[in-house]
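Bug report (template v2)

What were you trying to do?
Predict the complex of my protein with adenosine monophosphate.

What happened?
Run completed; filing so the output is reviewed.

Input:
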Amino acid sequence: MRILVVGSGGREHALVWAIGASTLCDALYCAPGNAGIAREATCVPIKADDIDGLIRFARDEKIDFVVVGPEAPLVAGLVDRLEAAGIKAFGPSAGAAELEGSKGFMKDICRKYGVPTAEYRRFTDAAAAKAYIQERGAPIVVKADGLAAGKGVVVAQSVAEALEAVDDMMVARRFGGAGAELVVEDCLIGEEASFLALVDGETALPLASAQDHKAVGEGDTGPNTGGMGAYSPAPVVTQALIDEVMERVVRPTVRGMAAEGRPFKGILYAGLMVTKKGPLVLEFNVRFGDPECQALLMRLKSDLLPALIASRDGVLKTFDLRWHDENSVCVVMAAKGYPGDYKTGTEIKGLEKADAVTGVKVFHAGTVEKDGKILAQGGRVLGVTARGATVAEAQKRAYTAVDAIDWPEGFCRRDIAWRALARRN
Ligand code: AMP
Ligand code: GLY
């Protein structure tokens, strides 16, 4: 089969790496890809949001199956357009992707189908949102309705902070149109966990557990980022929790979306808060997490490609995914300054040495190759991922590889997987 992966991050490098190993894959393309992906697939300079360009390419190159990595093209309807053009694709339709594309839509689905989530209200008017915040008190959470690259959420510790967030999102339009509508919801307390399932419209197959570290600083402090690292399995996700989340969150959501005439296919990623009263949904994503994907695929024993095709074809019922018992840890290396301003074009050396460490694979995110040199070109630049018999061994291997990388303008957290280690010891 001829496969096209859409996207350019660490997640897409991991997808390319796994799909490239499939017995079904004869030719592999990535649009637009990055310097690491270019060594494993043919990169084509078409952006992930250039729907017309992607369709033209898929037609011209007789692509059999397209795997879409990021949320924005899914929400924009890339899968619908590909399918309408007769090209099979992995991921949700635009109607189903609204679970991530509109936080208000997602909350309404939860309410309608009894999926546990924080109490909330939707607002299109700043004054009404502010009045509700005054009445409800702090802490309280203000969310821009639309896509805001993971930055449209303010967990306000005071009423003043929440009111400022309303002005910022709705009046100053810090996230553009994404802030035309807001969700204001109660603040939940507990430990966060990510839960990913592969869904075919009807059947949901849970993936292995994984957890990311969103905050930029060690000990999970400082501003949120796209994710500074991840590990799998996540000990917070016990078998009892898996059963509960499948029963109370995943299955009712999948049934509900089908009942709404928006059957969900692809990866359903539930961001959960595990509270004393059980798990509540913070958000749904409609694609693999980045960097959770890197940590997960490092542990996947089964061939990924047939599973993605089975999701698209609606035949997951007969499927089963196998995982390595080993642990994995992915450490993200980012450009100094991230998630604020950072420099691009700095040279990264030592990647071969890092890749040669036992059990390690270095996934690229924001990299380009120029005159034989690998240059950093984004905020999150590398995902140094390792497998090991224990979480401690995987972590040690990942940091051994990190230390082999010579990139003075980069940084990483030194404590990825600390929660897993704290629970085990
Ligand atoms: P979201 O994009 O909705 O997952 O929000 C990003 C982050 O904000 C989450 O990972 C949580 O750390 C935090 N968050 C979101 N909603 C809540 C909530 N209701 N209570 C507490 N923290 C929240
Ligand atoms: N790592 C969080 C996300 O991909 O949304």
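What did the reviewer find?
The radius of gyration is 21 Å. The chain has 14 helices and 24 strands.
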